[in-house]
Every structure is written in C-alpha cells, then in structure tokens.
Amino acid sequence: MKSFKEEMVLIKTLGIVWYVKWFATFMVILAVACRSVDEIPKVYDVVLSFIGTSAWLWVGLQWKDRALIVLNTVIVFMLGVSILRYVA
What is the dihedral sign for C-alpha 7, 74, 57, 35? Predict the structure, then answer.
C-alpha cells in the first residue's frame, strides 16, 4: 500500500497556464477589493469576478482538477446570470 506522500502529485504549472493562473488570481483580488469599497458600483465586482473565475475554470480544465472545474463552473454560471441582469 502506497503512503500519502507517494501518491501525492504536485502540479507544476508551466507556459500559458502559469500566466492565466496569476491573471485570474489578480482579477479575483481586484473584485474583492471593489466589493469592500461602498463607493464602487457592484457591477465592477461582478464583472471582475466573472473574468477571474472564468480564467480559473480554464486552469482547472487544463489541470483536469474536478473540484476546480465544478466550483468555477457554478460560480461562472451565477455571475453570468448576474451580469445578464445588469445588461437586460
């Protein structure tokens, strides 16, 4: 029987995935910053969150990480509906 340490595989992010991962992280941080300032309209938070979460969904697909895929798919859907409410 393999130990946990033997079964653990670290994801080494290379190439475009590395850049998208950090871009997505920066977008989510900006969205949270917008959310924390009352004077900034909520739409900025929603759009930046949508961009960051969509990018994280793409990274999850590249990594084949089901937890990231499920989480970010649900969040992208919810944020997309929220954006449609602003547009419509």
Answer: negative
* Average confidence score pLDDT of the chain: 92
Q: Are 39 and 71 in contact (CB under 8 A)?
A: no
**Per-residue model confidence as pLDDT tens digits over 31-54:** 999 999 999 999 999 999 999 999
CA dist 6 and 71 (Å) reads 27
SS3 65: coil
Q: What's the Cα-to-Cα distance from 52 to each of 10, 26, 79, rounded to whole Å?
A: 23, 8, 11
Residue 57 makes CB contacts below 8 A (sequence gap 6+) with: 68, 69, 72, 73, 76
Residue type for 85, please? R
Structure token pair of residue 57: 């969904």
Q: What pTM was computed for the model?
A: 0.85
- Cβ pair 27, 55 in contact under 8 A: yes
